[in-house]
Design brief:
With 405 residues, the protein is an alpha+beta fold. Strands 1, 2, 3, 4, 5, 6 and 7 form a seven-stranded mixed sheet that branches. A two-stranded antiparallel ribbon has the order 8-9. A hairpin with a 2-residue loop joins strand 8 and strand 9. Helix 2 runs antiparallel to helix 3, helix 2 packs across helix 7 and helix 10 packs across helix 11. The chain is globular. It starts with a helix and ends in a 23-residue tail after the last helix. 24% of the residues are buried. The chain binds iron/sulfur cluster. The site of iron/sulfur cluster has 13 residues, from helix 3 and helix 8. The site of iron/sulfur cluster (SF4) has 13 residues, from helix 3 and helix 8.
Length: 405
């Protein structure tokens, strides 16, 4: 079949414009003007990199406005579309998960907002889902959804900070008029008032005897994994609030010209956030010697980056194909080898990798020795560090978008 490239690109442009417009409306409706407060995701980012958090607070984004899509060059259009799909698939999943949870009859509040002021800094938390149970043993569960390409082995520090901030605020503000439920008249009410008005559920005036936990649901295209529970901890909430104040003050200083963005602290060493960061082009972390792109080394670097991108695409396709073949094997009731031309296939059960749970070992040793510091020390004495080795990092620089003209 013949492809009409112009029409295909027109379709991509239309879709990109739609996704960007939808994102702009959704942010305005659900989160309001994000430059007017510090949110939990700002705090999470700020705990990893102050420079990145302040830049995003100042609206320094590499995402083009929906109205500018018509001017984007094709490679920028493709990149923008890909990024929007990654960013927005979490919202699509959120919609499905909300319907599934609602179908169970559980009492659920989507996008509950907690709004406070701390040391003169406006701070807001938007909770994806808040589940409420009343009665003799009242309980509240916060669920935060994270859409991941692959489910991580452990939770990122920025996600954990968000959770501690949310659950800490819920408990600390329980009886204060800090809660708002979107698309209702429930604005600036206490948490028990919201539960009563929404579901007729009576909750105690104090959260002390309420079972409160927060969880993250990490969702990939074929898997869901819960991480938690995260309990309200005063110390962790304090750290979150201090981070919020630090981001706000730093943003004010940069806005008023007292500080430059590059004066701010940034995360050292290798960090996955840097590849996604909107302000990585001129980050002092990468103050690099410029290598001419037509030099031998420059050409080799370009080729390496391209090969790595292809490798990532291939790995994704291999993983998908493996999953399909495994499914077919199960469907045909495969017990032994299946052969096809020059290849044989078999799905076998392989024993899981054995790993040591460090905190469990410390707990067990503490019980045996009776002293947790000695247990910790004993474990450290048994640890072996591998030899240092070289690693080559290649990451994408976010250049200003090019015009289609
Ligand atoms: S590139 Fe990395 S270090 Fe620099 S601001 Fe962005 S996240 Fe921080």
């Amino acid at each position: 079949m013949q492809h009409d490239d112009t029409k295909a690109h027109g379709l991509l442009r239309l879709l990109t414009q739609g996704l960007l417009t939808h994102a702009e409306h959704k942010t305005a409706n659900e989160l309001g003007d994000r430059s007017l407060y510090i949110g939990m995701s700002d705090i999470g980012k700020g705990m990893e990199c102050t420079r990145a958090a302040v830049a995003s607070k100042l609206g320094m984004s590499a995402i083009p406005a929906a109205s500018g899509v018509g001017d984007l060059a094709l490679d920028d259009l493709t990149h923008t579309l890909g990024r929007q799909v990654i960013l927005q698939r979490g919202h699509w999943q959120e919609h499905g998960i909300e319907r599934a949870l609602t179908a169970t009859g559980v009492k659920l509040v989507p996008q509950l907002e907690i709004s406070i002021e701390h040391s003169g800094v406006p701070i807001k938390a938007h909770l994806d889902f808040t589940l409420i149970w009343g009665g003799q043993r009242p309980a509240v569960r916060i669920l935060e959804l994270k859409s991941n390409e692959r489910i991580p082995d452990s939770l990122y520090a920025s996600y954990e900070a968000q959770l501690y901030g949310q659950v800490g605020l819920l408990k600390a503000c329980w009886g204060e008029s800090c809660f708002s439920v979107p698309e209702t008249e429930l604005q600036a009410v206490t948490f028990p008032q919201a539960a009563l008005a929404l579901f007729g559920v009576g909750l105690p005036d104090s959260p002390d005897n309420v079972d409160i936990e927060a969880w993250v649901l990490s969702i990939s295209l074929s898997e869901v994994r819960p991480f938690g529970p995260y309990m309200p901890e005063e110390g962790m909430l304090d750290v979150c609030l201090q981070t919020a104040v630090a981001i706000w003050r730093a943003a004010e200083d940069v806005r008023s010209g007292n500080l430059a963005l590059n004066d701010l602290d940034y995360c050292r060493g290798f960090h996955p956030l840097c590849d996604w960061c909107d302000v990585n082009a001129d980050c002092p972390k990468f103050q690099a010697m410029n290598i001419p792109s037509d030099s031998a080394c420059g050409l080799e670097l370009e080729e390496l980056a391209m090969l790595k991108e292809r490798k990532a695409t291939l790995e994704g396709r291999i993983a998908e194909a493996e999953e399909r073949i495994k499914q077919t094997y199960r469907l045909v009731g495969g017990q032994d080898w299946l052969s096809n031309g020059d290849h044989r296939f078999r799905v076998a059960n392989v024993a899981g990798r054995r790993t040591l749970d460090r905190s469990l070992v410390v707990d067990k040793l503490t019980v045996l020795i009776g002293d947790d510091r000695k247990a910790q020390k004993a474990l450290e004495q048994c640890e072996k560090a591998g030899n240092p080795h070289e690693r080559l990092y290649v990451s994408k620089i976010k250049r200003p978008l090019k015009s289609a003209a």
